């Protein structure tokens, strides 16, 4: 199927309406809106009789690898052996849009980096057809504080090092565990010092979370080892509130360059974070139940907001409104998974589910 292009780097399926494609291009020029169904940084390289054929072959191959990566992103590692075999026509049929960057081409060869956005419904249906549980509900974002310790000391708010660069080049948006790096402006510098970050100063870290509307802060402290390319890192995740921090440590050795070690370390932490989130948020399809809850709100507009947020929770199969008034409602939630899993997914939509003496109450988190 011949593709149409808009601009030099954006491509959309020809079955899409022109203006939808143009809006997608301008509103998300690099598909940077948070979208767990988008895969970035796919390196493509193909050779053919002419430049157009080489480009088409490279893109088809990249779409296939992107879909394979997406299916692994959404599912547990223990289920990867059950994932369906993907071929290029299948992947192409599920693509919503794609974008290329860093193009290099000759008369017969094409190289680029590919970003692919897939159709959510098509991906869901594929996994459901193979009875593979998956998670598409992202955790609320975290603030990432990157600190590098080397011969010059402990470095925070420093953009010119391999550790900060590794995170800047990583996709922190289109993931199940999104993160944001601080701007490093005067407000950040005066709110959090390197000493406070390393000491785990909860007041200063809480202020950073509030500044970036996040529910946790990750202090990622990397130290250069005995060789210039070795790196050890300790990640401490501080939730907002009074919950205790969680720690994870790892090492990278012998990669040939510090930047490569840093990039691999960043990728490992992202993978681990996603794996932990999936273990908590994925529900098996056989676990199905109905929960009756009273919903509290202060206005009909807040009630509509609650309904909209409930609709975004993939675990909830159906919401039945039993009764409704200007001050409250009674609903029945037909959902997949355990109550704890449902509660976890609700929290990501700023909803609180509370059990009071056997009666369930649902409300917005203010």
What's the structural blueprint in terms of helices and strands?
Elements: E1 4-6, E2 10-12, H1 18-27, E3 38-47, H2 51-74, H3 88-93, E4 95-105, E5 109-118, H4 120-129, E6 142-150, E7 153-155, H5 162-169, E8 179-180, H6 186-191, H7 194-199, H8 202-211, E9 216-224, E10 231-239, E11 246-252, H9 258-281, E12 288-296, H10 300-311, E13 316-324, E14 328-336, H11 339-347, E15 351-356, E16 359-364
Parallel strand pairs: 6-8, 6-9, 12-16
Antiparallel strand pairs: 1-2, 2-4, 3-5, 4-5, 6-7, 9-10, 10-11, 12-14, 13-14, 15-16
Characterize the largest beta sheet: strand count, sense, and whether it forms a barrel.
6 strands, mixed
Tally of separate helices = 11
The stretches of 5 or more residues where confidence is low (pLDDT under 50) are 1-33
Basic shape: globular
Order of helices and strands: EEHEHHEEHEEHEHHHEEEHEHEEHEE
Overall pLDDT level: 86
What number of structural domains do the residues give? Answer: 3
CATH class group of the largest domain: Alpha Beta
Structural class: alpha+beta
Give the N-to-C terminal Cα separation: 49 Å
Relative strand content: 25-35%
The number of distinct β-strands equals 16
Overall CATH architecture of the largest domain:
3-Layer(aba) Sandwich
Helix content bin? 25-40%
Concise overview:
This protein has 366 residues and is α+β, with helices and mostly antiparallel strands. It has helices at residues 18-27, 51-74, 88-93, 120-129, 162-169, 186-191, 194-199, 202-211, 258-281, 300-311, 339-347; strands at residues 4-6, 10-12, 38-47, 95-105, 109-118, 142-150, 153-155, 179-180, 216-224, 231-239, 246-252, 288-296, 316-324, 328-336, 351-356, 359-364.
